[in-house]
Amino acid sequence: MSRWGRKARPPPGFDYLEPTLAALEAELREKVNEGHEGKRKNESLWPVHQINWQRSRYIFDMFYRYEKISREVYEYCVQMKLVDAALAAKWKKPGYEKLCCTYAINTKNFKFGTTSICRVPKQVLNEGTVVEDANCGCRGCSSGDQGERNIFGNKYGQYLAGIQVRRERKQAKAAAAVAGVWAEGGGEEEDEEEGDEEAEGKEEGEEEGHGKRSGHDERTEGGPEMHIHKKVKA
Ligand SMILES: [Zn+2]
Ligand SMILES: [Zn+2]
C-alpha cells in the first residue's frame, strides 16, 4: 500500500505528484531490500537518505519554486512525512539552499564541534580532497558555485521538479505546434513562467547529464528560450 493512502484522503491536486512519488517509493523499497554485502554500514544507508532528500526536494520545489501544488497539498505531504520538514526549513535559509541532511550541520555529530566536510566550500579544501558525508554520501552541499550541482553525483541528486516542469512545457509546446499556435507569441502567463526557467534552466540542465538520460534535448532547448525571454523583457 502506498504510504499516502493510509491516513487522510489526499487533497485535490495531490495526484499531480503521485507518479513521481510512486517511482521514488518503489526505488526506496528496492534499495532497502537490496543486500548490503561488501558495503560499509553507513554506505548501505546512503540510498535511503538520498531518496528521502530527493523526494523532499521534489515536493519543496513544486510548491516554493514552481507553484505547481497548493499549500494544502504541500502541508499534506509534510504531515505524511513525504517532506522532511526540518530539512525543508533549512533550505529556506541563505547558505543552506542545498543542504543534504540536518545531520551534516549538527555539531554534536562531529569532533571539535565542526560540521560535515560536505559543508565546506571547495576552495577551502586541499585539491583532490575526496568529499563524502559519512551519513548520506553528499559530495558537497555548500551554496553558490563552490557546491556541487548534483550533491550526490547520481540520479538521486537530480532535481525532479525541474525535470518534470520542463518536460510538461515541452509537451505543451509540441501540442501547440500541432494545433498551429505560436508558443513564442507570448501570453503574459507564458513569459512569466519562462522567467523562472531563465534563472534555473542552465543549472538544472547540467544536472540531468549525471543521469541515464542525456538531457541534451532540453539543454539545447533552454538556449533560445532564454534568449527570447530576455528580448521580451527588455
Ligand atoms: Zn552535504
Ligand atoms: Zn548529508
Automatic annotation (TrEMBL):
Similarity field: Belongs to the BUD31 (G10) family.
Ranges of Basic and acidic residues composition bias in the record: 208-227
Annotated Pfam families: BUD31 (PF01125)
An annotated GO BP: mRNA splicing, via spliceosome
Lineage: superkingdom: Eukaryota
Keyword Nucleus: yes
Region (Disordered): 180-234
UniProt KW keywords: Nucleus
GO cellular component, one term: spliceosomal complex
Protein name: G10 protein
Amino acid composition bias (Acidic residues), ranges on this chain: 186-207
Keyword Metal-binding: no
PANTHER family in the cross-refs: PROTEIN BUD31 HOMOLOG (PTHR19411:SF0), PROTEIN BUD31-RELATED (PTHR19411)
Subcellular location, record wording: Nucleus
Primary residence: nucleus
